[in-house]
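Appendix B, record 7
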Amino acid sequence: MEAARNRSDGGVNLPEGPAKYIAAGDKEAPSWLQKLELIQSILGQGHRITLARLGAASVYLRWISTGALFCAEDGNHHRPNRPAEIARDIFVSLETVAGELYKHGAEVGEAERQMMRQIHPWLPSFSSEFACSEPLTRIRNIAHRSDISEDLKKQIKHTIQNKLHRNAGPEDLVATEAFIKRITVDAHPGECPQAFVDEFMLFYDELKRFFNCSGAIERLDAMYDTFEDETRAQVQELKEAMWALDDGSAGHDGLTGGEGQAILRALRASIDVRGIFTGGLSTGMRNDAPDEAVSQRQAWRLAEIAIEELAFVVLARALQSAGAGVEGEGDEKTSHFANALNSGDASMWGCAAAAAAAGMRHMALSMWRPMECNAVARELEAWVQHGSPIATQEDALRCRASLQRARRLVEAHTQALIDGFGDAPVGLGKSFGIQEHVGGTFVDAVIRANVSFQLSRLVSPMLRAATSAAGSDTAGYDAIVLGGPVVGILQECDRLEPGAVKENWHKGRVAPVVALVWGADGDEEVSAAGKQVRGVVLARDLPHLSHLAIRARQEQVPLATTEDEETRNYARYLVGQWVFFHVTPEGVILAPATDAQIAAYEADAARIPKAEPPTAAPAAPAPEPAPETKAEADSVDDETPTPETKVAETKVTAQGTVQFSDKLECRPLGDATKETGGAKASVCGELTHFAERPEAGFKAPPGVFVPFGVMETCIREAGKGDELVKLIAALDAAAAPDDPDPSSIEDACKAVRDLIERVPFPADLAAQIAAAMPTNSWVVVRSSANVEDLAGMSAAGLYESVLGVSTSSAAELGSAVQEVWASLYSRRAVMARRAAGLKQADAHMAVLVQEMAPATVSFVLHTAAVSGADNTRGADGFAPSRTLEAEIAVGLGETLASGARGTPWRLEIDQTSGDVRTTAFASLSTAFMMHEHAMHLGMNTVAVDYSRQELSTDKEKRDTLGRRLAAVGAALEAEYGAPQDIEGCVVGDDVYIVQSRPQPL
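Structure tokens (predicted):
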């Protein structure tokens, strides 16, 4: 293309960064060699590997290698060994940090590893045949053959030989291919002897090897003699499987026939062979690796990438043979493949699951979340072992959970590539004058050439079929918090955080908002995003009993989630419009609001006095200090030093009485009261007493608590008490305006937190806590504020808990306690208290320390169902039902509380009949685990394989656990006289309860 010959404009319109650097450097780099040197200058050894650098370099390298960017001679003379040297340097730089094990240098993430894979295929080879002082000399010998004409000799010398040895570039491969046509198709009879043609084709093969243009089978053939016997047998199996597909001997009778078996054979063989290479590449490359080892590593890396490309082709054949329809033409939902899946055809499900599992394993071999990809592959294979995986509703729910995990992995991989390339393709395309569509469609083309793309085409119809069979196809939504109807303007935001939702004024009032939210960490406060938020659509899964769901329920804000692509796209289409939003047990409605619905809202709003548009509010005065400390507080700003403020022994707040300790102490958990240690510590102490009853049915972990006032005493004894009072007063002032400045609040919060964490933690107090716990134990350090676990204000997850703290380390223990203290002043906590109308000076923190148990599974239990159709709304909210709801996850409970993507096992237990109904199977990606038999090793995060989890494979186990939890929940509800939100875990055969708080209804 002519535009491709245009030189760079220097990136004058690009922001500072790698793309601009490349665009500017290209002005002085006309040749392919110099362009490689430009890439070397940002990715070579000694340079930091970043996602932005990899993205920009990948785009540039691909374009100069494919001719999209024109390469010219630079007037210098360098043989092809010089580009080989540069390629080696870049390769070593990447491979040194890329290994899964024993890597060297800086840490790189999963996205960086995927972007490195976009670099390797476009680097030239630096094997010994090209790294020698005079490589590619065969063409010189050909040009001097005596059996060809002088004209042919001149053509070879002037169009290929001289250029190649002077200024090699991918354009030489194009020239060689054109010359092949000249000496074969266009040659006169007898003009070109066969021996000459054969020799030239050998040169062509060499050139392809230099530019790394060989396919998977060619690469395997080239290395065949270096393999061991077992590897040779596996390579031969792959070659024979591919021959069967290519020569037609496999037939064309569809995925469930002989053709399908040949396809699956080829996929299995490709995994086996590719696994040999990736296994050898799993360790980071040594800095002092010899040239031969580095060259072999490049050959292995390119071989495994080529096999991945081969798998892409085979997966496309699988989709074609299944009758999946033509992607993009809208017939996927009515295709033969979709219809067979919807009908529960066991043969089609078996073959589709096998193909999808193979795709997941190839993604794992590409180092994309390998543990989870392999786990999902095993799940898909397990669910089809005994026939159709959607034969019953529970079977369909289980299959759906695994397919949701598969889709999340595919979507995350796609997003990693999008983020990795960023704006580089479009920006560089404009800088180089390349046709607009080349840069605009670059990322899409890369994604559509990836195994994950074919996998998405397999998984999507499977997921639709499983969802339909599970009876979960409620317009693509999952109803989390029932409520509405709501009429408001749909706004989108990344997360529910201060300032995320803007005010829209409508007829003199702030219009209500339905928020379309793209991400969540599970600890958000809905009201913190704005009081105008009346409904939330979360574009990802969320546990029904997560902290975010609890808070939305408490604030009576309807909440629905969706991971359905069409549903999310439709919601995004509605952004900026007035919408009608209603979350009911029967389903979720999100639709454009009618004129009548908008008029009804306006009529209701007219009964409320109009608000005035916000103006800058003056800073609020610092709150009056408590009477006991007023004199000292008045003297804080005096130049003369004054005695430190003394903490009052008792303080009455809107949340009740707080009794302060003026000692550096901890007390037995069983002695905790609401006044001395907060509602959480008090209840946890009560639980230890309840657990001692023979009929309790559960255990409770013992521990100690650090009472209210100890934090202030610690700070006061360090001479910083008055500073703390002053900083908290400043925080109250920053949060006082109707429309506070988020940055001012964050600065004020940080100042308080920094003070708390800066003061040395008393060694005596750390020793007291450690002495009260078993020797060398691991504990959880939890918050117990006077403004959490209250009726009407659960503040679930608002404050920090620190898990896996070793009591053998005084520093670690003290740091954990200080972290919990400081969490009282996180911006999120401050904004939540502000929304509730609480003064920051009235919030106080005690700390709860309990021994950790190696939980097999953890759970959250609501003793009054919140999402069932049998709930009815009374004047004061939902009337309690006799159905209990439990959500269960593998490992420690942080996974449930965090709002991690995916669903837990969800059980509904009928207290009257004892029937247990499974409404969702677990699909959470990872679990937070303690080493049960080696607790000194602490905790680790593991990918969960649900095909090996009893709660997914054994209905009786699920039902038994459900009934046990229901019995415990009913007992605690009776004990406290109100519905309870209960957290606990299972260790072996024992149920542990770690928390019970009033359940928001």
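Remarks on this record: The two ends are 66 Å apart (CA to CA). The CA atoms of residues 724 and 752 lie 7 Å apart.
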